[in-house]
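Hey, quick one: can you model this chain's 3D structure?
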Amino acid sequence: MNLEQFAKQHGVKTRKDSCGETMIPGKSRKTQRVEDRRHIYENGDGRFGLCYIQPSPYPASVGKYHNAQKRLLAAGFTQAQDGDSEGTFLFDPKNPIQAKLAVKEIGARVRRPMAPEKAAVLSARLAKARLFQRPASENGLPTA
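Sure thing. Here's the predicted structure for all 144 residues.
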């Protein structure tokens, strides 16, 4: 499983960092660079990595990091690096418990799929609205 498949399966977006590497960004969205926030990345050995950092606009919270560290280690993550208020953890993307916890810990925005009934109602509403649309010549727009 690669990062794109993982992101699609869990309803999150991927972005490229300044080096061109693909990652799943999380909090905080106020940082200048994408890699300066919590994120999930491919480790290269079939596992993914979770980088838990406190972004620069906020003061480093040692307590928040230690609580997150306890949750991640209890779920079976392997700690690769450990700092005072930041660290990296490795996990198996095929493990549903670890994958869901990783997405939650980085604070990624999860897109919820639209119900088929709602999609049908919205497409019918759009089709009806297009029936009453005025031609471009009546709107004062130039015609091609």
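One thing worth noting: The chain has a mean pLDDT of 87.
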